[in-house]
Amino acid sequence: MKKILTLMALFLTALCTQAAISIIDTNTGGFSSGTGAVTGSVSTAVSLQEGDVIVVSAATNKKGDVSPITLVQTGGTGSTDGQTVLYNGLTTYPTSWGWFMTVTNAGSFTYELRSEYITAVASLHVLRANGGSIALAGSAAWDDTDNADNGFSYSLNYSFSTNLSGAVLIEAISARTDLVSEPATYTEEINGSDKRVIASHTAVSGTSWSSAYTLSGGDVDKQTSGALGMIFTEGEGAEPPPTVSPYEGTNVLFIAIDDINPILGSFGNTLIQTPNMDRLAERGTVFLNAHCQWAVCGPSRASLMTGLMPEQTGVMGFTKMRGDAVNDDRDNARGVTNIVTIPQLFIEYGYETAAVGKINDNRCVGSINPDGTINEDGYSVDDPPSWSYGFENPPGVGSTTAVRTNDGVTVKLAAESVDQPATDFIDGAIATGGLSLLNTLAAGSKPFFLGVGFKKPHLPFLAPKSSWDLYDRDDFNPAPFPYAMANATPYTFNSVTELRNSYYLETDSSGNALQLTFDILPDEQQKLLRHGYYACISHVDEQIGRLLDELDALGLASNTIIVLWGDHGFHLGDHNEWGKHTNLEQATRVPFIISAPGYLPGQVSTAPVGLLDIFPTLCELSGIPEPVQPPNSVDPNDRPLSGRSLVPILQDASAHVQTGIMNHYGSGTYGYAYRTDRYRYTEWIDSSGVIQARELYDYELDPLETVNLADEPGYEGLIYQFSRSMRNADEAHGCDRLKSSAPAAATSANLTLRGIELQNGQISWPDAAGVSWNLMSTSNLTSGTWTTKQTGITAPIIMPTPDPQRFYRVDVVQ
């Protein structure tokens, strides 16, 4: 997403006005992001005081499938309440937009409008009342999709519940090619080639109002237009906004869960008991297609906390993400000594930050010595630069005493029910610590960032009996496909045997643990392990409920962003795997929920997203500029972070911010996996940049990954396009070995895609970035000639008059 317009208002001296409401400042500018370049920037200086209303409006040249506009406060010392967004409803995306928000703390403000493939004009107005408050009296819109003749007039018509006097009108009018003429008494704030106009008027009165606009001179069949208008008035008898409590900034509650699969009720699982995470889902947006960037705790969390891919952090195992380690026995030397984490950045912007439990992986962090080396004390201190408050994990119930096998291997019981109160367990103690920190932060003088990291359902599956009792063992089934897929590569599975190396389920008559074999586990053992895994998740859910209840009791739910995430998934016997450490769906896919004030609740997104997208998303939601990693470096791709903001999806759950999400895994030979809406394509690339193996899975037809399709007939077209799409500069950001390697070569002159659909006149096919296609057609599949119908296509297309007697195919352009 490209930054395309900056609007600023700076704190200077107070101004006095005589009218009921006055426009005390106006900024205007034009912008275009078709090439991603910044082409408009305007600024001014004006006093913004408590109770002022900032209004931003935009009129665009688009009516079709383009990225919607978002407004973000990127800097300044002042703060506002939540944004109210209005827009007209032309076709897929609006042409005209309006945002307004009330200043709650006086100071300076910097805003940015962001989008892609849009040319527009925009304005920022500051409204001030003589007394009382400012309210939206009414809004109006028009949407013309009928290509009206030249000279056609439109009106924005308003009606009000009371008789207005001296109200302020702001309108944004967009015409694709027509010329726009506003009422003569209106002030034309900005004019974009007479096709996009923003106008204002400060003398609206009465119980109704009408604004007439005339369109003329447009191109034939391109005369679509749209508009949005807003009228503001002084609230009758209203008091000035109350002084906010110190903690009423935009707070962040950051909930991490270890080794958890996306099997919550809100993700479609009908057996699991997760009422508290499900009520959080009802407040926000559920991301069904979310993935970690490396399916191991340390690399995944380092990537998430920095917004970078594991290759960029250097953490692709249990190595330190800062400086050099004291312990020379471990390869902990990292080149990014000044890397910035999410909470560390929030400290720089005035937040108090605190955490309890597992946020970073303790093996990848530690206290910093004056010489820049890292101590091996991460278990107790987590990452000191990230937290305002000292970090200390509480004690809690641990696993039973380790025992030995007949071969002398020390192991622990893998699944156990213990009849003790939930608060006695480690995650109960973590939740208690989180509640204490929450109350401390809420009573402070700054907005806060609170991290609470739960340790279950990580092995061993140890949970209170009350959580086990939520389930009947007979309700569980063994893994539906406990085998290797057909055409598995030598790299698909790993040598890490997490369950079998460190845990046991039964003992012999002498009390020695019976070590688990590498055969498929018996059904009863699989059901026991699944029962324990579900019990652990329900135990964690209970603790999350305690946090949500306290947040509500403190009155903070309305101004707190809540992010819930799992660091990676966990194989529960599928492919005979019991752990993570793969590039497959069960290892990389995670539960991910964002609830943010001012955004629609109860949304579900299937767009591919990654955990590294959390960093830029929180920046945009909190009005904090994204940092360039490492600081003071120059990013040639204008991408300070490898992650992308998910705010467009919070605004519209059908939106996408990327075609696919990257993750990788491996040692020596790296596996780069590219997950789209439907497919996962993986390339295993050695240190010399040569592709050693490929994998392709179709989750619509084969959700259990029973067949690797990479070498199956008919899939070369998909492989060709995915191999290039994953190397696209945007998609492969931060994947250095991948970008330096050559994509898959074609062995056929015509690469025809599978997965083509024709529905309601629209031909579509699997998404890819940086690839184009040709549409071919024929009337006879057996003897007809294929003719080219359209070339150089970059997105699904609409066929104006589909012919049922013709057949279509899509070829990848080589």
TrEMBL record:
GO terms for molecular function: iduronate-2-sulfatase activity; metal ion binding; transferase activity. Keywords: Calcium, Hydrolase, Metal-binding, Signal, Transferase. Gene3D superfamilies: Alkaline Phosphatase, subunit A. GO terms for cellular component: cytoplasm. Transmembrane segments: none annotated. Its cofactor is Ca(2+). SUPFAM superfamilies: Alkaline phosphatase-like. It comes from the Bacteria. Residues 251-624 form the Sulfatase N-terminal domain. Residues 1-19 form the signal peptide. Belongs to the sulfatase family. This is Sulfatase-like hydrolase/transferase.
